[in-house]
Design goal:
40% helix; eight-stranded mixed sheet; 8 strands; alpha/beta
Length: 238
């Protein structure tokens, strides 16, 4: 996968892209392939599918007219999706990548150093713990997550990080249909409202991918997030 392939595919998908972004993604991809031989960063190995599933999908909000500004935290970032591609595409955006596994952050630091990205910070923490830390609680304009958890759990993971008037954004699949009712209840408890989902159409793919945005309407009650492991065992709104 080279710069030309990446530039052509992002352009075909309607995502704003220039030579610099394409070059950065290409180098990120090289590092991901290398490190993936030593640790489990991605199960997807087909080049064309990796381009669409990781990079195109992460950047689809830009095609949908979503404008990121200020600060963003990617909770449970894994190999850096969607936060790192967004940081590359939006150099004025301050991006924090949070993950509970230090080995993933070691990989991400190698990418940041290699590409000399100055707008990215790494945090080693579980979402439940980070959401109570005064350094991060209620500090971000955006909180995002991709392929992390069911919607009611995501609400509790993401919304404590978001300042009033900010937004949470989730990348979801077809399971969203069954999660919306409980998700709305969870969001209400956490002082947020759900918008209508946006269906993502990627040319040549029949994937059922959607974006779901939440608007933060007030301060999250101090008891949330609950202690580590509780949100997934006893989801809010269910």
């Amino acid at each position: 996968m080279n710069n030309t392939d990446i530039l052509a595919r992002l352009t075909e998908c309607g995502i704003p892209c220039d030579e610099l972004l394409a070059a950065r993604i290409a180098r990120y991809h090289e590092l991901l392939l290398d490190w993936n031989t030593r640790m489990d960063l991605t199960a997807v190995t087909d080049e064309a599918e990796m381009l669409d599933r990781h990079y195109v999908d992460s950047l689809m909000p830009l095609r949908e007219g979503i404008t990121f500004s200020g600060s963003l935290i990617d909770v449970g970032t894994g190999a850096g999706f969607p936060g790192l591609p967004l940081a590359m595409a939006c150099p004025d955006l301050s991006v924090t990548l949070m993950d509970a596994q230090q080995k993933r952050l070691t990989f991400l630091q190698a990418v940041i150093d290699d590409l000399q990205l100055t707008n990215v910070t790494l945090v080693h923490a579980r979402a439940e713990d980070g959401g109570h830390n005064s350094a991060w609680r209620g500090k971000f304009d955006w909180a995002v997550a991709r392929a992390v958890a069911p919607l009611p759990v995501l609400c509790e993971y993401l919304l404590p990080f978001v300042k009033t008037g900010g937004h949470a954004l989730c990348w979801k699949g077809p399971a969203l249909d069954d999660e919306l009712t409980a998700g709305r209840r969870a969001a209400h408890l956490l002082e947020a409202k759900l918008r209508d989902p946006i269906r993502l159409v990627i040319p040549g793919r029949d994937w059922d991918h959607r974006l779901l945005m939440m608007d933060k309407t007030g301060g999250t009650p101090q008891k949330y997030p609950r202690k580590a492991g509780t949100p997934s065992k006893a989801p809010l709104g269910v």
